[in-house]
Design brief:
The complex is a heterodimer of chains A (about 140) and B (about 425).
Chain A (H helix, E strand, L loop, with lengths): L2 H13 L4 H14 L21 E8 L2 E8 L2 H14 L4 H5 L5 H4 L8 H20 L2
Antiparallel strand pairs in A: 1-2
Helix pairs in contact in A: 1-3, 2-3, 3-6
Chain B lengths: L9 H6 L7 E2 L2 E2 L1 E2 L10 H13 L10 H21 L7 E4 L2 H16 L5 E5 L8 H10 L2 E5 L9 H7 L4 E7 L11 H10 L4 E4 L3 H4 L4 H4 L3 E5 L10 E5 L1 H6 L10 E5 L2 E4 L19 H12 L2 H20 L3 E4 L9 E6 L4 H10 L2 E2 L1 E3 L4 H7 L4 E5 L6 H18 L1
Parallel strand pairs in B: 3-15, 5-6, 5-7, 7-8, 8-9
Antiparallel strand pairs in B: 1-2, 4-10, 9-10, 11-12, 13-14, 14-17, 16-17
Helix pairs in contact in B: 3-11, 4-5, 6-7, 12-15, 13-15
The chains are: A mainly alpha (about 140), B alpha/beta (about 425).
């Protein structure tokens, strides 16, 4: 699936739910389904700054593609990072670095988070972009 | 007390707070973040608006009529505060921008004169950052030692333990009347008495205490009492420092500027008498007078039997709900000193997730460290969820909060 197709899939997925509580249920499920993140990788340099809950993000490059892994101690935040990973894992550095991350606005995620959480989301996006542009 | 002569029902009280009719995400707002800031009654809004629209002029100096009105309103608020906390003189009431500024004033000015290298200052582990950091700054500046009083298991401070901490070098003790996290009333009178027996003055951070307790500074015998206006229904940017005259007289000015001087010469300046000595620069004269209707409201609510009964019912209900569920850990459990401020952790559910889901159900609560990181470390948690109630909250809202909380917990587990 191309990056655009994947984004479209998520936008459609989100449009199925009218209520924000249902969207949270969906994010919680996404959070729970995230692959376990090794304890030894939960280091200070993998922590995303600007989040109130703790979020760790790691990237690995294989065959020219970036693969992300992540964890958080808050499940909705974990769902959000899981959503981002599902879109951007397995893409090239260039694809990620040049993307506008506009689909996040399209699903209304940022607007419906508390200000601290919204800042956290911005930090997650910045970190993903940074990893693509500069590597770790 | 003009506005509140009649004893109001809670429905009538709620109608004084138009913001309570707000809808969030299509749900009726249930505002339970009162310990962060209270809502303002219409009388406060009207007073605020009236001052801006009708009598905006700089206070004290000018001879014109508008200035006289503004000065009268401002100084009237000082008299109202004096009565409200039963200070012995109006000169003991200093207006500041809030409790933080009040505490910084004391730490800086009292500290400059009385705290020296090798002395110690005592704070408690359950203080808000604004009653820790000013003292830390002072200790760093002076080479003094900051000592920390622990809190008991039930959330109260113990005068006997405080007694053991005091030495001949202790220059001041700073304690919260009520911790903004633990929500239990500390035995301030006993704590003060222990300190005075050792010759040590006491500053009380009354940010929460002023809202929930009838404060009589002469009875408490504390040396300083600090609080913010916005937590007790007044405009933001208003605050009070009460100080015993003997200290305020001895203390050097905190900030220099207009209003706080007697004569200014390059050869030396003399300072205005109290309270102006500590009120440098243009004061928040549009906002300070809102303390009058705010404190009127606070007093009428406190003395209203219907409010008392509802608050008691809320307290009992929430306390029972939060202590009988083994997934929930409530902090600050001393039953006889508990006020309706509840901070708790839920096993297996992050406080932020809970707050986020509750928000979508219309319930405004606080999550996180609540400006009390040392207390969070002491309790061994990364943060808590806090629900704090005001006289306009109802038992129905308390029940809706618990139902919503249980639903949120189900979603997360």
């Amino acid at each position: 699936m191309t990056l655009e197709e994947k984004k479209q899939e998520i936008i459609e997925e989100f449009s199925l739910y009218d209520e924000w509580l249902d969207k949270y249920e969906y994010l919680i499920e996404l959070g729970k389904s995230l692959e376990p993140f090794p304890e030894e990788k939960k280091t200070e340099d993998r922590l995303i700054k600007g989040c109130q809950s703790r979020v760790w993000l790691d990237a690995e490059e294989r065959d020219g593609m970036l693969y992300f892994s992540a964890d958080s101690d808050a499940i909705i935040t974990k769902g959000i990072i899981s959503l981002l990973i599902s879109v951007y894992s397995g893409r090239t550095r260039e694809e990620i670095a040049t993307d506008d991350f506009g689909f996040v606005a399209e699903i209304g995620l940022k607007e419906n988070l508390s200000p601290t959480r919204a800042n956290g989301l911005v930090s997650m996006i910045d970190t993903i972009k940074n990893l693509a542009e500069n590597g770790r | 007390m003009q506005n509140y002569q009649k004893q109001m029902t809670i429905t009538e009280i709620r109608s004084q707070f138009p913001i309570l009719d707000t809808c969030v995400y299509g749900k009726s707002l249930v505002y339970l973040d009162n310990a962060a800031t209270a809502q303002r009654p219409q009388a406060v809004v009207d007073c605020w608006k009236g001052l801006v629209e009708g009598s905006n002029a700089n206070i004290h100096r000018a001879v014109h009529s508008l200035a006289a009105q503004a000065t009268e309103a401002y100084e009237g608020a000082r008299d109202r505060v004096k009565t409200f906390i039963n200070a012995s003189a109006r000169e003991e009431i200093i207006f500041t921008s809030g409790a933080t500024a009040s505490i910084n004033l004391v730490a800086s000015s009292y500290g400059q004169l009385f705290v020296n290298q090798g002395d110690d200052v005592v704070v408690t582990v359950c203080e808000h950052h604004s009653d820790i950091v000013p003292w830390q700054l002072l200790c760093e500046r002076k080479g003094a030692v900051l000592k920390v009083l622990d809190v008991e298991e039930d959330g109260r401070l113990n005068p006997e333990i405080l007694k053991k901490l005091l030495t001949a070098r202790t220059k001041i003790v700073a304690i919260a009347h009520i911790s903004n996290v633990l929500g239990v009333v500390n035995p301030v009178k006993e704590l003060v008495s222990v300190c005075h027996a050792a010759g040590v003055p006491v500053l009380v951070d009354g940010s929460q205490g002023i809202v929930h307790e009838k404060v009589d500074v002469q009875d408490l015998d504390c040396d300083f009492y600090a609080f913010s206006g916005h937590k007790i229904y007044a405009a933001t940017g208003t605050g009070v420092l009460y100080g015993k005259r003997k200290w305020l007289d001895a203390m050097p000015p905190y900030m220099g500027g207009g209003e706080m001087i007697e004569t200014v010469r390059f050869s030396g300046t003399t300072y205005a008498p109290l309270p102006m000595k500590f009120e440098a620069g243009t004061q928040n004269f549009n906002a300070v007078p809102t303390l009058v209707p705010a404190l009127d409201f606070a007093e009428s609510a406190r003395e209203n039997p219907e409010v008392q009964a509802e608050q008691k019912a809320i307290l009992d209900y929430i306390y029972t709900q939060l202590t009988q569920d083994n997934r929930i850990v409530l902090y600050g459990t001393c039953p006889e000193a508990k006020i309706p401020v509840f901070s708790f952790a839920v096993k297996g559910a992050h406080h932020e997730d809970l707050a986020l889901i509750l928000d979508k159900m219309g319930v405004a609560v606080r999550s996180g460290q609540m400006c009390a990181e040392p207390l969070m470390d002491h309790l061994g948690v990364t943060g808590l969820l806090r629900a704090s109630f005001a006289p306009y909250n109802t038992l129905d809202e308390a029940k809706y909060f618990i139902t919503s909380l249980l639903r949120a917990i189900e979603m997360l587990q």
